[in-house]
């Protein structure tokens, strides 16, 4: 069950990471005329740092997962999230009339749900046994 305090921290950390991700994409697309899908990968790279730090020392701090193990697992979770993100984003960009920025917000919100569940139940799990 999601505790209200954990939920609030998750939302704050996730919002910060999503804002960083979205901001990098907007800056690259508008400022550098980068392709949205390429800019999305760059945005993910920057947001990864915000997300890992916030979730490790905020959202899931009580789980006491060793940092190195949590980092390895979170990389896997996050790369899976990126694959899901890129696929959904590409489909929305190709098959809908949505603007790139609106499509990205929808994708970021959907992927956050998956990331939370995997982070809580695996990446930041405090038990030693794999």
Task: Give the topology, please.
Elements: H1 4-31, H2 36-59, H3 67-95, H4 100-123
Helix pairs in contact: 1-2, 1-4, 2-3, 3-4
The major pleated sheet works out as: none
**Low-confidence segments:** none
Work out the helix count: 4
Number of domains: 1
Structural class: mainly alpha
General form = elongated
Task: Give your account of this protein's structure.
Helix 1 runs antiparallel to helix 2 and helix 2 (36-59) packs antiparallel against helix 3. By secondary structure, this protein is mostly helical. The model has no long low-confidence stretch (mean pLDDT 91). It is elongated, with a radius of gyration of 15 Å. 81% of the residues lie in helices and 0% in strands. It has four helices and no strands. It has one domain.
Keywords:
about 130 residues, mainly alpha, elongated
Task: Please provide a brief summary of the model.
This protein has 130 residues and is an all-alpha fold.
């Amino acid at each position: 069950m999601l505790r209200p305090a954990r939920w609030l921290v998750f939302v704050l950390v996730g919002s910060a990471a999503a804002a960083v991700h979205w901001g990098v994409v907007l800056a690259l697309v508008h400022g550098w005329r980068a392709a949205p899908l390429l800019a999305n990968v760059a945005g993910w790279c920057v947001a990864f740092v915000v997300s890992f730090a916030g979730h490790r020392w905020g959202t899931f701090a009580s789980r006491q997962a060793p940092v190195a193990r949590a980092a390895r697992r979170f990389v896997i979770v996050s790369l899976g999230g990126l694959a899901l993100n890129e696929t959904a984003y590409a489909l929305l960009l190709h098959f809908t009339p949505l603007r790139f920025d609106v499509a990205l917000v929808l994708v970021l919100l959907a992927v956050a749900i998956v990331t939370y569940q995997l982070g809580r139940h695996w990446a930041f799990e405090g038990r030693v046994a794999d």
